[in-house]
Amino acid sequence: MLQLSLVELRLLLRRRITAFSVVVVPVGLAALVLFGERPGSTAEWGRLLSTHVALLMMMSVFLVSVTVFTSRRQSRVLKRLRTTELSDAAVLGGVLLPVVAVGLAQTVAFLVFCIATGAPAPGDPAAVVAGVLLSVAVATAAGVATACLSRSVEATQVTGTPVLLAAVASTFLTSSNDPAVAALGLAMPIAGPADLVARGWSAGATVADVPVVPLDLASTVLWLAVAGFVFHRAFRWEPRA
Amino acid sequence: MHAGTTAEIRWPGTVCGMNAIEVTGLTHVYGDVVAVDDVGFTVAEGEVFALLGTNGAGKTTTLEVVEGFLRPAEGTVRVLGRDPRTERAALAPSMGVLPQESGLIGELTVAETLSLWQRLSSRKDSPAELMDRLALAHRADVQAERLSGGERRRLDVALAVWGRPRLVVLDEMTAGLDPESRQRVWALVEDLAATGTTVLMTTHYLEEAEALADRVAIMHAGRVRVAGTLSAVLSSRPARITATLPPGFPALPAVSGTVDLDGRALAVETEALQDDLHALLVWADRHGLRLDGLNATQASLEEVFLELASARMGAA
């Protein structure tokens, strides 16, 4: 699987548009943090950085995994790889692992940059790490599920948009002072893991509008389950007609 | 034609006389459409077996069940003694597969593609030698998506035969190839077969089956209609004698076949070619006649194929 992943990683970085976005998205977000309004408290830093992590995941991991997975299926590469000695799981993992690795690398680089330029260190690093890893999991699962429903790479612009918009909306909704609106935001894709990042950063600092951890996990499990259901029902090794 | 026998097999652990593939009562359904209906055949170790048939006959579906990618609705399939559906991982090191559709990673060059396969396979082979044999060496640094259709297919074949697997399944291996490329691929398959590799192939090119296959099966409408050695399949259909008779020819001799006389154009379809040809020649000699354009031929695979195809059209 690693051999396939290395080839896919090379191809990922060989594509100009992808290579461009790999650099531009985290740099752009870092610039927003550096030159934008600086948060006043650790909790506000946590909220800002978790929002950016969520955007990074959706832009890098979700969108790229939708495109790569759809492209590889439609061009029958997945089916051809099944004729090798790789297991089915290794074929899927080999294609997706580079996307995940790049997304994680971008996130780590972004967060390290932010801390280096004045952001407070996270109060509960373990919670932040858990939040980031769950973010990757949800973004990847949502990407694969969306690819399962996409008939072509072009169609992913339609099928991926609702998920992307919902994720973006969640970053606004979870910041609401209205608990009901914040809870609604938490029900959106990737909101749960992002909230975990925010809570981890503030390390339990009291923030009235931040919902509790069980809700974060419930939201995460919900979206992983939805993605798993779609994958189970709609996954095809061959192009969708 | 390759005349490989089980005695020539060089694969370690091969049991003489063992079937590499056993298909019994195979049925596969897509929705309401029965794609494969009660198909059965065996392929012996070291044999080259060709599945022929019109489009939609069920050849590719049959192959995909054998490859372990489709679960049959009914019937059993054993490949190298294993269930391909549940034991695909165990079979993969012994099996090379050429799908009907390419599935190459377009952004990889020819050399990179072979290099990837080298790393994904436990079988050993030489990318340089394969590129050379399939006339791809001069295209080593060209991305697969920039290759011509024939070059892509040759690269496909190279991946399928990588490391000389014990069993190769080839679905329309020479589709779209020019005659020279086709000869190269044929030579490669003949070479594999000579060293004991079992080959299960489908093709639309009847001359390809005639050139490579030890046995053939002709499918249509999801069923195997005719199967056996080429000579057995061909002898199951009447031979044909044709000639142009001279003006004012006398009464024809008695023959066992069916006589079709259109003016002076004579056509006899017979299952006793030697006897009927002898009767005609004696008759002509006795009357001092010259039989212009005399031709006596066994039924060709193409005729058998077309007969089945036309029967299908008639049924439709």
From TrEMBL, chain A:
Q: What are the transmembrane regions?
A: 17-36, 48-69, 90-119, 125-150, 162-192, 212-231
Pfam families assigned? ABC2_membrane_3
Give the membrane topology, semicolon-separated if more than one: Multi-pass membrane protein
Q: Name one GO molecular function term.
A: ABC-type transporter activity
Q: Where in the cell?
A: Membrane
* Keyword terms: Membrane, Transmembrane, Transmembrane helix
Q: Name one GO cellular component term.
A: membrane
What InterPro entries has UniProt attached to this entry? Answer: ABC2_TM (IPR013525)
Which residue numbers delimit the ABC-2 type transporter transmembrane domain?
A: 53-199
Asked whether the UniProt record includes Transmembrane among its keywords, one would answer yes
Q: Tell me, in one coarse class, where this protein mainly resides.
A: membrane
Highest taxon of source: Bacteria
> Could you tell me what this protein is called?
ABC-2 type transport system permease protein
Annotated organism of origin: Actinophytocola algeriensis
Q: What is the lineage of its organism?
A: Bacteria, Bacillati, Actinomycetota, Actinomycetes, Pseudonocardiales
